[in-house]
Amino acid sequence: MKVVVQVKLLPTPEEASALVATLRACNRAAGHASTVAFANDLKDRNGLQKAVYTDLKAAFGLSAQPAVRVVKKVVDAYATLKANLQAGNLGSSTSKRYRAAIGSPVSFRPDAAQPFDDRCLSWQYDARTVSIWTVDGRMKGIRFACSPDQLKTLVAYRRGESDLVQRGGKWFLIATCDIPDPQVYEPVDFIGVDRGIVNLATTSDGSNYQGRRLSRYRRWQARKRAELQARQTRSATRRLARRAQKEKRHATHVNHRISKEIVSVAQRTGRGIAVEELGGIRERVRLRRDQRDTLSSWPFHQLGQHLAYKARKAGVPFLEVDAAHTSQRCPRCGHTERANRPARDHFRCRRCGLAGPADVVAGVNVRDRARSAWVFVTAPAPSP
């Protein structure tokens, strides 16, 4: 599996100045290559490299390999744009956003990330330094900081390119590590996880991860957003963008914490993890106007992604099961009826009288479905 490791660079002022000049030169070169690619419809790597390689070296001060990396960066940008257009992420072909995307070359920010391969960037793990190509020459001995676990992962599994990134006046290297998948063990049972808005996650064991604090924080952010939007100034727009990123980081941190705890419990007890398959829920559910913002900003999908990749990394079995009627079905007698759930937080079977917290009952139903599904997942393929 692919794992991204981010380390922090600690350059001196002179080294930082060279890195800034390098990023700006590479992104100016990428902008030039993008203009040529757009004007001549050169979206393949070989054709674009033949057209711009000499100019990138002569006009922008790039050496051979950085010029090649810039061409690859431009080609990848157009491939990403094409994929987004085909997936409908930019609207229909008649939308303003779609026409703007295809009507001009792809642009690059002056401080956009720049990929470096092993010919431009080398790592000295023992000394915790890197040597990197810059427009001012090769810079050697630039220190970096990371945790012992990150360093161990870099030494054993780093492969391919590393991206140089400047963010908030700080410098980072983002390296891709290809870690072999651990063997998935045979689970003794499953932990069913029910995801929701009031309770972000509730397990079949009865563990409840409430979303009350997160919801309160997001309502506060929504009020601040409304105040800034009412001002309609450039300063307010910049602050809105910063607030949006801050809120996103906060929700991601909460999801990381919840998923890490669930996976650790499953690994310690030898069980697997099962969640509901909730794809397309926004299209299936009709809500009141005051509820739409809550559902649209609900991070249930991200929580499922965190659970999936953390389970895969730990070798924990992970399943997605059918979500139909998990909160209305009695796990003891199987009776399914909407009246079994008279209130959001309560469940009481109309047939056998089983009662309990509704989210825990849903987690138990998810667990039971995973038990049945695992038999089919691990069953040997029938012989022809």
Tell how many strands the DSSP assignment holds: 14
For the sheet with most strands, the description reads: 7 strands, antiparallel
How would you classify the quaternary structure? single chain
Beta content comes to 15-25%
Principal-axis shape: globular
In the predicted model, the low-confidence regions spanning at least 5 consecutive residues are none
Annotation field: number of helices? 11
Strand order of the largest sheet: 2-6-7-1-5-4-3
On the 0 to 100 scale, the average pLDDT is 90
* Rg calc: 26 Å
What does this 3D model show about the protein?
The chain is an alpha+beta fold and 384 residues long. The chain contains eleven helices and 14 strands. It has helices at 13-40, 45-60, 64-87, 96-102, 148-157, 212-231, 234-269, 281-284, 289-296, 300-314, 358-377, and strands at residues 2-10, 114-116, 121-124, 129-134, 137-145, 158-167, 170-178, 190-195, 199-203, 208-210, 272-276, 318-321, 346-348, 355-357. The protein has a seven-stranded antiparallel beta sheet with strand order 2-6-7-1-5-4-3. It has a five-stranded mixed beta sheet with strand order 10-9-8-11-12. β8 (190-195) and β9 (199-203) form a beta hairpin. The chain is globular and about 80 Å long. It starts with a strand and ends in a 7-residue tail after the last helix. The model has no long low-confidence stretch (mean pLDDT 90).
Descriptive keywords:
384 residues; alpha+beta; 7-stranded antiparallel sheet; 5-stranded mixed sheet; 21% strand
